[in-house]
Amino acid sequence: MIGRQSVAKVVKDAKEERAVVSSRASVQEVRITAQKARRVVDLIRGMKADDALAVLKFAPQAAGETVYKLVASAVANAKDIHGIRNASELWITQAYVDEGATLKRFRPRAQGRAFQILKRTSHITVVVSDAKGGTR
């Protein structure tokens, strides 16, 4: 399930004071190991959102499709809630992967034994913002 959250924060620069728009999308219990998902997320962290979507569209990793949908959802959240016009105005300020629940299965082996198989899941979160530095 993809969730959404939006934050607007006031940032004071030396020249002006403006609201920084930030939107978040996350997906939980994805049947991809966290280690493999982190390889994809590390590619896009700090990129412009439209560049990240272009990279993810052709990423050969299995997690590429899931992360593509997640970035597109975060951009759509920013457009819907804050009225951002296009993805070229947004930066991926945070992107991280956490481990989810592990499904435990057993495989029968020789002489009546059984070996455990761990089917790992992960939680992926992407935050987009109109400021390159982030919302901190």
Identify the notable features of this structure and list them briefly.
136 residues; alpha+beta; Ribosomal Protein L22, Chain A; four-stranded antiparallel sheet; 3 helices; 4 strands; 43% strand; elongated
| Discrete helix count | 3
Quantity of strands, as a count: 4
Radius of gyration: 18 Å
The quaternary structure here is single chain
Secondary structure topology:
Blueprint (H helix, E strand, L loop, with lengths): L1 E11 L4 E14 L3 H11 L4 H9 L5 H20 L8 E18 L5 E16 L7
Antiparallel strand pairs: 1-2, 2-4, 3-4
Helix pairs in contact: 2-3
Word description of this protein:
It is a single chain. The chain is an alpha+beta fold. The protein has a single domain, classed as Ribosomal protein L22/L17 (Ribosomal Protein L22, Chain A), CATH 3.90.470.10. Helix content is 29%, strand content 43%. A four-stranded antiparallel sheet has the order 1-2-4-3, with helices on one face. It starts with a strand and ends in a 7-residue tail after the last strand. The model has no long low-confidence stretch (mean pLDDT 87).
